Amino acid sequence: MRLILLGPPGAGKGTQSQRLVEKHGIAQLSTGDMLRAAIKAGTPVGQRARDIMARGELVPDNVVVGIISERLDQPDAKRGFVLDGFPRTVGQAEALDRLLAEKGLKLDGVIELKVDEGVLLQRIESRLAETLARGEPVRPDDNPESFKTRLKAYREQTAPLVEYYRARRRLGSVDGLVTVSEVGRAMDEKIAELSRSELAAGG
Ligand code: ADP
User: Which atom of ligand 1 is nearest to the CA of 32?
Assistant: First the structure.
């Protein structure tokens, strides 16, 4: 199974990706996690990404496309994957289409988690409070100013992907404001619907 999860920061993409990983034995490919690992390791990519990420802006397409291309070739991605946080621009989506075609892979579907912005701000604030309460380090982009920039990046650069995948009949939208397990159930239904329409269309 090969899926993309689409949704604004704080929509629950990470939580739902984890569930899919456990349920289907597929790999979670989070460009955010990969970039944070690169920063920690002090690689050239990490050095390039650090300040951009802290501000809440998007890292250049060629950087993330390069990371994803390599990651798709790792053995654990052979059984399938859920892309969490990639693609984030139309350019990235086009590059992904090319990569998958080159590698002879097909996408099963794209699930959009729909959440309104007021709720996102509350979620991110409580996430911040919980992290602090646990005494864990806070992400440099989990502050109100960077979060506003992340939302703006989503609205302007990522939200157009909803239409991109709708036009390609790959999209299933799910209400992200219900409980974690209800979101999960709704996603499973959409995934089943997408694969049925794929079969009906002749693969
Ligand atoms: P969130 O979805 O909560 O914003 P992520 O961990 O997915 O968190 O992303 C954190 C940051 O990493 C983004 O704000 C951006 O700077 C960078 N990033 C992650 N994925 C991409 C991507 N596909 N394209 C460009 N930048 C990315």
Answer: 6
Instruction: Please state, in angstroms and rounded to a whole number, the distance separating the CA atoms of residues 123 and 9.
Output: 10
What are the backbone dihedrals phi and psi of residue 166, each rounded to the nearest 5 degrees, phi first? -65, -45
The answer to whether the predicted template modeling score (pTM) of the entire model surpasses 0.85 is yes
* Ligand 1 midpoint to CA 203 (Å): 32
Q: What six digits make up the tokens of 122?
A: 């509350």
Report the SS3 class of residue 58.
Answer: coil
Ligand 1 centroid–CA 77 distance in Å is 20
Which residues does 192 contact at the CB level (< 8 Å), separation at least 6? none
Residues of the chain with pLDDT under 70: 202-203
**171-175: strand order across its sheet:** 27-30, 81-84, 2-6, 109-114, 171-175
What pLDDT does residue 202 have? 63
